[in-house]
Amino acid sequence: MVKNMTNNVIEVTSLMKKYGDFIAVNDISFNIKKGEIFAFLGPNGAGKTTTVEIMECLKNLTIGTIKILGLDIRKNEMEVKKKIGVLPQDFNVFEWLTVFENIDYFAQMYPAHVDVDTLIEMLSLTEKKGTLFKDLSGGLKQRVGIAIALVNDPEIVFLDEPTTGLDPKARRDVWNAIKELKTRGKTVFLTTHYMDEAHFLADQV
């Protein structure tokens, strides 16, 4: 296994993504240290989601290098995927299953996974564990999504615009959940177009 001799858990160097003549991501570089909350800020259409999908090994890069936990994503795709958790903008769950049942369903996909009740407590969902997903508020649904992203006990968690469309209280609840990830030693890569969100949460923008 490749050892990461720096304190960086993510290293992006000269990243570019092209679709024909269209440049979706143009020559970006950044490093993220272990335990940081990194806010990737920009307006809609700025290439945030494309960048994240490349880092998650869902799309191929055109030019540049990305290392996750010292692993080149082009050569170690499966190993990288085992070490990350992902909450996309639109995540799929079962509307007619409860909070517990949804999280447990995804947890069973991993031979070794975090205890479901531990995740429910971490995300302050204990009182809602028996509630159908379809009956949850927007903020609670996002917290379930974060719990699902944590079932494999990832070292790095990618959250793609997790508070878009939420009311102020729901946004604050999700922010508190993200802060809790940091206290537990997780590195968080957060995409957002909200300046106040980046200011409140991020160690680095």
User: What is the mean predicted local confidence, pLDDT?
Assistant: 93
Task: Look up the CATH topology.
Answer: Rossmann fold
Envelope shape: globular
For the largest beta sheet, what order do the strands appear in spatially?
Answer: 2-1-4-5
Q: Report the total helices.
A: 7
Report how far apart the termini are.
30 Å
Order of secondary-structure elements: EEEHEEHEHHHEHEH
- The helix-and-strand class reads alpha/beta
Description:
This protein is of the alpha/beta class and 205 residues long. It has one domain (33-60, 76-201): P-loop containing nucleotide triphosphate hydrolases (Rossmann fold, 3-Layer(aba) Sandwich). The chain has 7 helices and 8 strands. It has helices at 48-55, 77-82, 99-107, 116-122, 138-149, 168-183, 195-201; strands spanning 8-19, 22-33, 37-41, 63-68, 71-72, 84-87, 156-160, 187-192. Helix 6 (168-183) links the parallel strand 7 (156-160) and strand 8 (187-192). Helix 3 (99-107) runs parallel beside helix 5 and helix 5 packs parallel to helix 6 (168-183). The longest helix has 16 residues, at 168-183. The model has no long low-confidence stretch (mean pLDDT 93).
